[in-house]
Amino acid sequence: MTNADDLADARDFDECYQTTLNEFRSLMDWTEFRTAKAALSLTHLKVSQLLIVHSKERLLELAFMVDGVLRSEPGSMILIPQLEMAIQRGEVEHATTLGQVEHIDDFQECHVIYMPPFYLVAV
């Protein structure tokens, strides 16, 4: 491969990444945090995990990571290494029970993306 091929591949990836982020942006909804909490309780939503970040931009990046998990193993509840590292560094909060998110006010405004079994939240 030549440098030109590498550059073309990089452009193709960047274009694909931007297109995917725009698709996730279209899935993003504004709500209050109590909706995210309810998602853990409502079995018909099939949400077993909340992944919480602190900006809309980070929410889109998180959606991109989670999409990779779900595409490789549909319905997977396994976290990929990059996501596990983000959780360990405190960049992403991971909750599977309501008790883990009691510290967030029910009326806190947030943006969400529904990607079962995950509910992605930016507070």
List the helices and strands and how they pair.
Layout: H1 3-27, E1 29-32, H2 33-41, E2 49-53, H3 56-72, H4 81-88, E3 93-95, E4 109-115, E5 118-122
Parallel strand pairs: 2-5
Antiparallel strand pairs: 1-4, 2-3, 4-5
Shape: elongated
Give the overall average pLDDT.
86
- Number of beta-strand segments: 5
Oligomer: single chain
Q: Structural class from helices and strands?
A: alpha+beta
Radius of gyration: 16 Å
Proportion in helices: 40-55%
Low-confidence stretches: none
How many helices? The count is 4
Bin the strand percentage. 15-25%
N-to-C SSE string, H for helix and E for strand: HEHEHHEEE
Strands of the widest sheet, in order across it, are 1-4-5-2-3
In whole angstroms, the N-to-C terminal distance is 44 Å
The largest sheet, given as strand count, sense and whether it forms a barrel, is: 5 strands, mixed
Tell me what you see in this structure.
This protein is an alpha+beta fold and about 120 residues long. Helix content is about 50%, strand content about 20%. It is built from four helices and five strands; from the N terminus they run H-E-H-E-H-H-E-E-E. Strands 1-4-5-2-3 form a five-stranded mixed beta sheet. Strand 4 (about 110-115) and strand 5 form a beta hairpin. Helix 1 (about 5-25) packs across helix 3. The chain is elongated, with a radius of gyration of 16 Å.
Summarize this, please?
This protein is α+β, with helices and mostly antiparallel strands and 123 residues long.
